[in-house]
Amino acid sequence: MRRIGWLLAAWLATPLAHAGCFEQAAAYQQVNARVLKAIAWQESRARPQTVHRNANGSIDYGQMQINSIHLRRLSQYGVSVRELMDPCESTYVAAWHLRQMMNKYGNSWAAVGAYHSETPAERDRYARSVRQILESDQRFARFEQSSGPLTQGLDMRTARADVQPDRAQQQSQPQQVQPQQVQPQQVQQAPARRQSAVGSDPVQIAEQMLRQRPPPEDDRCLFEDLAAC
Fold first, then answer.
1. pLDDT value of residue 144
2. Which end of the chain has fewer beta carbons closer than 10 Å to its terminal beta carbon, N or C?
3. Are the C-beta atoms of residues 107 and 177 closer than 8 Å to each other?
4. Separation CA 182–CA 103 (nearest Å)
5. Helices (H), the chain
6. Which pLDDT does position 98 carry in this prediction?
7. What is the Cα–Cα distance from 86 to 104, expressed in whole angstroms?
8. Cα 31 from Cα 29, distance rounded (Å)
9. pLDDT at 20
């Protein structure tokens, strides 16, 4: 069992005149902010109160559609459903999850696809969707330029886990938009925490859905409802 040591930092005042939570979370986990935004667009059209039940019984929460299979591990960092329904917190957790996939698959489109599923066919399909969003989706381009208030946070609290990431595997590089490279020896960042600004209603709905059925043993999700998200 891994021993996780915590180094809790003080609350940080973050002026966000030119940087939102996507940029902050990306910098914190050393991933690509544009890729994070494209994932948010793919998952929920960047709508923070999205809750989606999958055919396998798992539930996807919030703007970044974090799957319920991760709740047990996230609880070690003090992250619950309430935090996942907050757009900024959800973005930090998504950056953490993407960083884990990059540690495993390298700086590749396979890592981007594995954000959704590590099943090869689903992984590759998801990566193609994200890449298409980045390259040609005009509505995403307008969203990216708007930098709306839902992508901006207030104060945040950061934490570092004393866990060495898995050795990154050698993979081919994405040809255009690339997640930012990191050395495999680097200490992996835990999901950051921030004050939740979400109301109680969507959280209560999400928690009620979660109680109806326990999380499954895997986090493979289906694509059938993504177009409606």
1. 87
2. N
3. no
4. 8
5. 21-29, 33-44, 71-75, 81-84, 87-105, 109-114, 120-136, 138-146, 200-212
6. 96
7. 27
8. 6
9. 86
CB atoms within 10 A of CB 148: 10
- Tell me the whole-structure pTM to 2 decimals: 0.63
Residue type, position 33, single letter: A
Q: Which two tokens stand for residue 195?
A: 């004050």
Among the CATH numbers 1.20.1740, 1.10.530, 3.30.1490, 2.60.120, which is that of 17-148+183-213? 1.10.530
What pLDDT is recorded for position 89?
A: 93
Token digits for 108?
Answer: 């590749």
pLDDT average per 10 residues of sequence, the chain (229 residues): 26 36 92 95 94 94 95 92 93 95 94 96 96 93 70 29 30 43 47 46 48 37 32
- Could you tell me if 156 and 86 are in contact, meaning their C-beta atoms sit under 8 angstroms apart? no
Please check whether residue 91 is in contact with residue 194, taking contact to mean a CB–CB distance below 8 angstroms. no
Domain residue spans of the chain: 17-148+183-213
